[in-house]
Design a protein that fits this description.
The longest helix has 20 residues. The termini are close together. This protein has a two-stranded antiparallel sheet with strand order 1-2. It has 135 residues and is mainly alpha-helical. It is 57% helix and 6% strand. It contains six helices and two strands, in the order H-H-E-E-H-H-H-H. The mean pLDDT is 90. The radius of gyration is 16 Å and the shape is globular.
Length: 135
Amino acid sequence: MPATIRIVAAAYPPGALAWEWRETAAAACRAARACPHGALTTQGHVLATADFIATLAVEAAVHYLDLTAGLPAAPPPDAASLALVRRVLDGLLGTPLPGDWDDRTCALKGTGREALTAAERSALGARADRLPLFG
């Protein structure tokens, strides 16, 4: 897990970060349902509203993996969210990540949270140099 995430998470008292996350996620879902626009502008880019919402879902799924990396009792991430992460990573790479990787492995290795083994690097060939696809 990146050090900055650990530092930020440590600033919250026990339980507060989970509460904050639930509140923020619920507000984002309400806003998405109520949005009457087909597109929006963010960080200098125009995105279809559905694509923006998918971006937030991918970010949430990856950060959930960050937050629960050292918590073996934490519930697993939602399978649909990890499948979405995989589709995004495959799209960014322009070709599917290895089929023998499950969606969680794709999320971890495709974003650089887990290092590639020498065998994986060899199997990926030149594609390995493009990983991580985002951080």
